[in-house]
Structure formats: C-alpha cells, structure tokens
Specification:
Elements (H helix, E strand, L loop, with lengths): L3 E5 L7 H9 L8 E5 L3 H18 L4 E5 L2 H5 L4 E4 L6 H14 L11 H25 L4 E4 L4 H11 L4 E4 L6 H10 L6 E8 L2 E9 L7 H13 L15 H8 L8 H9 L3 E2 L3 H4 L12 H15 L17 H10 L3 E9 L12 E9 L2 E4 L7 H23 L2 H9 L7 H14 L1 H4 L4
Parallel strand pairs: 1-2, 1-4, 2-3, 4-5, 5-6
Antiparallel strand pairs: 7-8, 8-9, 10-11, 11-12
Length: 446
C-alpha cells in the first residue's frame, strides 16, 4: 500500500537506519515513498547513501528521498516518525545528570525523570512542538509517532498544545518482556498472555496467564525472577564485543547479582510487581532509589550505551532491528486493519488508567486498526504502585506549563513537586545554573 513516510531525525545513530530497515522489510509498504529529514546534512547523507545502496542491492520497490528542509519533507506525508535530540546528546545529558548531583539532589540518572528529565524536557520539547506545528499545517491527517525522550513529558505537552494531532509515543523498552518471560517461565511466548502499564520507563507487568491452562503465572514470575536475573548479563553486554575499553568489558564480564537491577528487586519484593525496565530508568522517579540501585551497573550501562550509539551508522544496521517489537508491526496493522494488540504505546490517559488524571500521557497496551491506535483500558492499578505514579502527575503537569508558557517559575515548581528533590535551595541553584549552562536552549524561560 503506497504511503509517504517521513523519518524526522533520520541522521540519528539509534533511529534512522534501524527504522528505515524495519520499513524496508515490509511487503505491505512496497511502492511507498520514504523521506529522510535531519538538520545535520552530513549524518543525513550518510544514512541516505546506506539506505539507497541497500534498496538497490536488494531491488526493493521503494522511493527514498532526503532533505534538510522539514516543510518540504512533510508535503503529502501520511505517516511521520519523530526521533530527535538537541545539541550534543551526551555532553548535555552529562549536565542534566551531574549538575543536580553537585547541589546534592540524589538522582540516579538524568534522562527522563527527576531534575535531569526536566531539563531534557525543557530543551527538547520546543523543537518537537515546532515539528508538530508544521505537521498540523501541512499534513494534519498524518499519523505521528514519537520516539524521543522524555517520552511522557513530551507527549503530554504536545497533546495539550495540539489535541487533534494523531500522536502516539513508542518505546522499545517493552521488548524486555517477550525477551525474558518465556525463558524465565520455560514456556513459549505463544503460551503467555500478559499486559503491562504505567508511565514510560516507569511501567510494570500487571497481569500474566498461561494460555494452555488459564492459570495465573504471576506467582511463578515472583518465585523464579530473582534466580533468573542473577544469571542474566546486562542488556548492553553484547554491545561491547568490539569495544577497546578494557575496564568496561571487565565490568560487564563480572555479571554481578542483579546487575542494574537492585531497585528492580525491591519493587518485586515489596510491591509484588515486575518492572519492565532496569534501575537507571525506573529509579529516576523514586526518592529512595539512591539507597538501593546498583550505581556501578548504571554507570556501566551509560558508558556502554554511549559506545553503542557511536557505532550504529553501519550498513548492517539497515538490515532492521530483528526485535520482537518494531514500528513496522504498528504501521502495517493500521494499513491492514489488523485489530491486533500491541504491548505498549504512549497515549493520553482519558480513562485508560483510573489511578491517574485524564490529561497525562500513559503507557498502556493498544489495539491497532485502520482508525489508528486505541489504548486498552487497564482500570485501577495496584495501590502502592499507583501512589508512585501519582507522585509524577504534578511534575508532568508543571513541565508542560513551563514549556507552553515559557515560565521559569513553573519550571522551579516542577522541581519542587518532584519527590527526588530534597531542598528548595538546591532546586533554585540547580535551575539557575542550568539556565546559564544551557542558555542556548533554555533562554525562553522567563
């Protein structure tokens, strides 16, 4: 079925070639036009050349274009996929993480939650709003998919600004469940029926059953998960096969008990729920995470992820991700009216999770059909986990207000309602320092 798919941020190491490869594998999209867009002409040209060579080598029936002009790229678009970063990703990420730490704010990471997640949001949401404004003007009927982080804060703010935009947030983190659950329970994935939900990077397995017997499989998950995860190497261990960083390879080779999963273990033991992600992500939202996470594991993960991103622009990457979950399945499902259930999407709550207000984006399963992406209602979540989620509502709400109104005061309030922040003085000084350090990106806050 001919479509015009626009990949915005196509020069990204972690996005462009992998997403392009997934689409090029699809028989459903044969004959479609794919437009690559990025503001970095060098990175864009590299991805375009690799993609073009792949298409020619395999004689694939696709038209591939590349342009640094966004409005040109969007003309006639039926599907838009956004995955951008702003500035030097890891340099700014280090600032998001380490400057709050300098003032004593005990955040375990700096990407999506806590003050680091706030500054990341304040920096990246304005350009995404600009992209979405162009989409609303040029191709308002296009289905739009966001891969950028901080996922929940981005999507919540965008939907408040453009409620009619057909926006869905997507994250690969959910792929951990199809990867681990069959091995943990020693049964095929086809024999498991499960659902997860919450907020992006702050989501848990909510229910799981064996299809053949109909029995609840959660007791087996709780019993077997500790021993299973003690024997599983870090998710990014495979990424280091070609690394020259001997110390980093040694860190991963140790395969310590619960590598980057010590908070994971506490949530399993005390909340009776299995997180779908590890300490570096889940811990950003919890004020007592600093005391229990595997800090060495988080540092190892960060270094490994930086190495992995630096080695993704290769011809092999365009072969596709070969993961159990890809954007390909969602896009195909919309065109074929499949009616299948996806494990996780990020959409406006609007009654999907009773535990949270309706005007925040939540992560839930979804039914995919010709009319788009339809979140599955999960109802009321377990009380204790619901309490952790509710701690984040005001943070998201005030982040959106800070961006949409250019309000420094709302940004400070977003920090002061964040459970990770312990001190008014620390919050004020952190904010002032970040506004100076990242003035190029945060100068709109007054």
């Amino acid at each position: 079925m001919q479509q015009h798919i626009v990949l915005i941020g196509a020069g990204s190491a972690n996005f462009g070639l992998g997403t392009l490869g997934d689409i090029l594998k699809s028989k459903v999209f044969e004959g479609s036009k794919i437009t690559l867009h990025d503001i970095n002409p060098v990175a864009l040209q590299t991805v375009y050349e690799i993609g073009k060579q792949h298409i020619e080598r395999h004689h694939l029936p696709f038209e591939l274009k590349a342009t640094t002009h966004r409005k040109e790229a969007l003309h006639g678009a039926t599907m838009c996929v956004i995955s951008i970063e702003v500035g030097n990703r890891f340099e700014l990420w280090d600032q998001d993480w380490k400057i709050p730490l300098q003032y004593g704010i005990r955040q375990v990471y700096g990407e999506n939650g806590g003050p680091g997640g706030l500054f990341h949001s304040l920096r990246i949401i304005p350009p995404i709003l600009d992209i979405c404004a162009d989409i609303m003007h040029i191709c308002p009927e296009a289905q739009v998919f966001n891969f950028s982080n901080p996922m929940s804060r981005i999507c919540t703010t965008v939907k408040r600004k453009f409620p009619e935009l057909k926006l869905t947030g997507l994250c690969h983190e959910i792929a951990s469940l199809p990867e681990h659950l069959p091995r943990l329970l020693k049964t095929p994935l086809s024999n498991l029926n499960f659902r997860a939900g919450g907020l992006n990077h702050f989501s848990v397995l909510l229910q799981i059953h064996y299809k053949d017997s109909g029995q609840d499989a959660y007791p087996d998950v709780r019993a077997k998960a500790p021993a299973y995860f003690e024997s599983v190497p870090h998710d990014y261990y495979w990424a280091l096969e070609d690394s020259q960083d001997v110390d980093l390879r040694k860190s991963f080779a140790r395969q310590a008990v619960w590598v980057e999963r010590r908070l994971f273990q506490v949530i399993l033991e005390e909340f009776d729920l299995l997180p779908i992600t590890s300490d570096s992500h889940f811990g950003e939202y919890i004020q007592w995470a600093q005391d229990v996470v595997d800090h060495r594991g988080i540092l190892d993960f960060y270094r490994a992820y930086e190495f992995w991103c630096a080695h993704q622009i290769t011809p092999e990457r365009v072969e596709g991700t070969d993961e159990g979950w890809t954007i390909q399945t969602i896009l195909e499902g919309m065109l074929t009216n499949s009616g299948h259930e996806e494990l996780a999407v990020n959409v406006m709550n609007d009654g999907l999770i009773d535990t949270l207000p309706g005007d925040i984006v939540v992560e839930v399963p979804a039914i995919i059909n010709k009319d788009g992406v339809h979140g599955v209602r999960l109802g009321k979540l377990p009380k204790a986990f619901g309490g952790l989620l509710n701690n984040q509502y005001a943070v998201h709400d005030l982040t959106a207000e800070a961006v949409l109104n250019g309000s420094k005061k709302a940004a400070l309030q977003a920090m002061l309602v964040d459970p990770v922040v312990h001190s008014v003085k620390a919050a004020r000084e952190t904010l002032d320092t970040m506004l100076t350090t990242q003035a190029r990106y945060l100068g709109y806050l007054k």
